[in-house]
Write a structure and sequence with these properties.
Layout (H helix, E strand, L loop, with lengths): L9 E4 L14 E4 L2 E7 L14 H18 L7 E8 L5 H12 L5 E6 L9 E8 L3
Parallel strand pairs: 4-5
Antiparallel strand pairs: 1-2, 2-3, 3-6, 4-6
Length: 135
């Protein structure tokens, strides 16, 4: 690859205080002034699963994990431009949405909701995001 190519500009972000990735992926990747945060599920910072918790508890943990990874990458929830939400049961929308609003406040990033058949391990929700960083 040519010197200065986009691949050379990618920086993997690990978040102290967040559960480590359990596979061959980064919690987030910085590419220029964008931060791409991998899908966050309801796993506590010590790595223990919350798959047996209800949707409200899982949502809170997912969004707390998202915030932690964003902060490790130099961003905040207010810098998020796009969110994708994966729900195991779209009927859970009335539970998810008010908690999401608590975390994001007046900031309303672009968002997509994707219904999924099932998550490994029994999780009910996953959230990923793209944030814009200050240079």
């Amino acid at each position: 690859m040519a010197q200065g190519s986009p691949v050379n500009a990618l920086q993997s972000i690990a978040a102290a205080g967040a559960a480590p990735a359990k596979g061959p992926y980064s919690p987030a990747i910085r590419a220029g002034n964008l931060l791409f945060v991998s899908g966050q599920i309801a796993v506590r910072p010590d790595g223990s699963s919350m798959a047996d918790a209800d949707l409200a508890a899982q949502t809170r943990q997912c969004l707390a994990n998202l915030r932690t990874v964003l902060e490790a990458g130099g961003a905040t929830l207010e810098r998020v431009a796009k969110v994708t939400v994966y729900l195991a049961d779209p009927a859970g929308w009335p539970v998810f949405n008010p908690i999401y609003a608590e975390f994001f406040g007046q900031h309303a990033p672009a968002r997509a909701i994707v219904p999924v058949a099932a998550f490994p391990g029994g999780f009910l929700v996953e959230v990923d995001a793209v944030a814009v960083l200050d240079d």
